[in-house]
DNA sequence: CCTAGTTACGTACACCGTACGTAGTGCGCT
DNA sequence: AGCGCACTACGTACGGTGTACGTAACTAGG
């Protein structure tokens, strides 16, 4: 009468050890770190149970003692990089603080290009996520709006950061396993875009396409978008 | 001296047929429709080359005559649902028009819950995407800002729609292959969140948690976020 | 002490994407 | 007219995946 749990489970609610039996050889942090190492070096698709187990030097199935499903491994990974957020002392300038938080999130995503792909699709209430949320709320203390509005602002900011980073990073991640470079891929896609625009079927798009001179400064675009968003929540500007 | 193309390729740049040899048994639209049907009914993970081929009634490897890589199949799928956008005549009220566009995008994602997962990670210049982009630019004609700012706004709106829908939809998609329901999963996760908040480690989060009475109206939150975003780009409000 | 709950892990299964080889088909060129 | 070649179709096979299940070793609680 064993049977696996036919009921959902949050990995964070499961204690790391239960006291009985041999001492576990690894901690959750060990496993997360190994998976992150692999994902950073070889891409998210290289993160397989076998590969992670090999990195740790244990049998594949032993991993399942720590992580009931692979998806939980993903949750460990996201939580692990969440620890890279610097939870600085709020300065009292909520705009500056939130900008700093957003820039940091963006930096983390560029350090770990697989994060955006995992972020959408995760419920995201891991310990480090909660800590970061609390930190953001602390930064927003000076902002005089209801708490609900604050969490909405945080969600919106995070969403925008993720969106921008994901779009920018997607090509990098995709070309990782391809025999051609990111630049080649972009060139081909841009060439197609150019050919389509040249048909005249998209006049306004063509105009926008022509207007821009030189490559887009994504960093600047990103910062502008953030400023706009903060404006929209700034009571001093309405 | 055959060898596969060692150079990137955009599926949309490849012609549907080349004239020589037997007539293809299917069109790209057939294949996309079959894949969409499977994804809608059984989830994105059920979309395998074998499954799609079976749905079409042909051998697995025959698919590769139409679609060089599985990722291209994904692009076909995204483009196919992109056709569901109603390209209405702009009313002159750019805010209302863009709201309508966003709501429609959201509706499409709820109809095809696998779309968000594919959206992030795709470069996204398929024919229907281009058409939709052009349509948005048409809606933004009355807005007196540079074309670059308009595309930024469109990107931002789409990003936010995707993010919000993704978060909301993730649980549905995830529980599809699980032996428990979406509600059960959500309940377990909320219980964990509550237990964490109750530890007192996250006072501000706790306050925000307590403040809300009853379940969150995601639709309303979404609409508020959109309004804020539009505010951020509305010259009349600055 | 003993036993129940763990950890560890080898084996096995069903499924995946897709490289490759072969056979048949019909357009384009000479 | 007829040859050749580019194309479609598709069976087989390979190396990978997540993970269910069974067995052996181990240790804390009663």
From TrEMBL, chains A, B:
GO molecular function annotations of the record: DNA-binding transcription factor activity; transcription cis-regulatory region binding
DNA-binding region, residue intervals: 48-67
Gene3D superfamilies assigned: Homeodomain-like, Tetracycline Repressor, domain 2
Record domain HTH tetR-type: where: 25-85
InterPro entries in UniProt: Homeodomain-like_sf, HTH-type_TetR-like_transc_reg, HTH_TetR, Repressor_TetR_C, Tet_transcr_reg_TetR-rel_C_sf
Presence of the UniProt keyword Nucleotide-binding in the record: no
Keywords: DNA-binding, Transcription, Transcription regulation
GO biological process, one term: negative regulation of DNA-templated transcription
Pfam hit, one: TetR_C_1
Identification of the protein by name: TetR family transcriptional regulator
Organism (species): Streptomyces coeruleorubidus
């Amino acid at each position: 009468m064993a049977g696996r749990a036919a009921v959902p489970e949050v990995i964070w609610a499961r204690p790391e050890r239960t006291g009985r039996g041999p001492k576990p050889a690894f901690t959750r942090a060990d496993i997360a770190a190994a998976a992150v190492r692999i994902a950073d070096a070889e891409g998210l698709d290289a993160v397989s149970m076998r590969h992670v187990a090999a990195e740790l030097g244990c049998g594949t199935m032993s991993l399942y003692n720590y992580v009931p499903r692979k998806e939980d491994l993903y949750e460990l990974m996201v939580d692990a990089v969440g620890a890279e957020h610097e939870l600085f002392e709020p300065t009292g300038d909520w705009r500056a603080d939130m900008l700093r938080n957003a820039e940091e999130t963006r930096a983390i995503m560029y350090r770990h290009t697989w994060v955006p792909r995992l972020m959408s699709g995760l419920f995201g209430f891991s310990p480090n996520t909660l800590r970061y949320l609390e930190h953001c709320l602390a930064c927003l203390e000076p902002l005089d709006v209801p708490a609900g509005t604050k969490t909405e602002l945080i969600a919106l900011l995070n969403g925008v950061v993720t969106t921008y980073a994901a779009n920018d990073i997607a090509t990098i991640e995709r070309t990782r396993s391809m025999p051609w470079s990111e630049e080649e891929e972009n060139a081909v896609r841009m060439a197609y875009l150019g050919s389509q625009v040249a048909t005249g079927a998209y006049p306004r798009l063509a105009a926008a396409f022509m207007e821009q001179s030189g490559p887009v400064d994504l960093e600047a675009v990103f910062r502008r978008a953030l400023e706009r968003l903060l404006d929209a929540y700034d009571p001093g500007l309405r």
